[in-house]
Structures are given as C-alpha cells and as structure tokens.
Amino acid sequence: MAYVAQQFGGLKCPSASTFTKNNNNKLPNPSIRPFEIANRRGRRSVIIASASSAIASPEVRERMKLKELFEQAYERCITAPMEGVNFTLEEFHAALDKYDFNFEIGTKLKGTVFSVDANGAIVDITAKSSAYLPIREASLHTIKHVEEAGIFPGLRDEFVVIGMNQSDDSLVLSLRSIQYDLAWERCRQLQAEDVVVKSKV
C-alpha cells in the first residue's frame, strides 16, 4: 500500500482541467487523449490528465541518464561511425601490422595464460591473435587438466612454437619441449659430475 502511495506521490501531473468541446469538436492539444464523462446535466465534458512515471531515486535518474547517453552513442555509431576518431582505418591496419610477427616453428617466446579449459590453455603472446597450448604439450607427465601442471590464468612463462592452426592463424605452443630440453641438460650435467642416479626403466 505504501508503494502505491509513493508512486502517486511522485506523479507529476498538471491540474486536471475540465472543459466542454468547442463547436468544431476539436481539443486544444491533439496529442493528449481525453476522457469524456457525462456530468449531472447530461452534457459531455472532457477531462485532460497526463502523468509521467515517477523518478523517485538517484539510481533511477542515473540509469535514465546512462540510457540517454547510450542511445546517443548508438545513433552516432549508426550515422557517423568514424566521427571523433583520431586515426583512419589505414592507420589502424598499419598499427596491427606492427604486431603481425612471423614466428617460425621452434621460436621461443614469452606469453601470458589468460584462459584455461579442459583441452588446454589460451595464451596471449602480444600478437594479432592468441596462441593455444594443448594439454598434451603442457607437461612432460601425463595430466588430465593443465592446472595439474601449474598452469593458471595470469601465468607468464616462456613457450616454444610447435605449429600453426590453419583455421584461425593461431600458433600452437608447447611447454613440454622446453621441459625436455631442460631435462636433457640436467642429465648431461649429472653425467659430467659422474653422479649415480636412480630411475625407472
């Protein structure tokens, strides 16, 4: 009940005006739809009442302002999409070409993991497109999920390019080959030091 009273309290209405139709049966403002009522004498009178929705809180006002801004921005995007942009489309393509690196297979590069899924991880390598680290290339060991190898979003590491996905021109990366290289380096070091080690055959 209090809600209804609050809504009626916030209505902005001009005072209801009652008048009789003139001889031409025309109303002063055709945009307002009048209500006709019959008074006690049988004459038909017209009551004009208009109401606007209540703007009760600052949040609603802020939402209305944002809605208006978005509508204006949408209109600008439709009518003049390049208005206010400080560069041309050619300059944009030239800037993208700066980040179009031609990575060869075997190239080592730094990247940041920004997404993991059941099949691997997506790595940002600051190129036009992101790269993919399949789960089989995430570790020397057999794992079921890349998180088992310590690969989480936000991890920055060095990867090696092992291929290219032709469907979307993204690179296929590997940590496994880097780990193999490190393991062989450690084996050579142990051999040079003549260390006895235990291993599974």
UniProtKB/TrEMBL annotation:
Residues forming the S1 motif domain are 106-176
InterPro entries listed in its UniProt record: NA-bd_OB-fold, Ribos_protein_bS1-like, S1_domain
**UniProt keyword annotation of Ribonucleoprotein present:** yes
Output the GO biological process annotations, alphabetical, semicolon-separated: translation
Q: Which Gene3D superfamilies match?
A: Nucleic acid-binding proteins
Q: Which UniProt keywords apply?
A: Ribonucleoprotein, Ribosomal protein
Got a GO cellular component term for this one?
A: chloroplast stroma
Asked if Ribosomal protein is a keyword of the record, the answer is yes
Q: Which Pfam families match?
A: S1
Q: Which GO terms describe its molecular function?
A: mRNA binding; structural constituent of ribosome
Q: Which family does the similarity line name? A: Belongs to the bacterial ribosomal protein bS1 family.
Q: What is this protein called?
A: S1 motif domain-containing protein
The species this protein was found in: Genlisea aurea
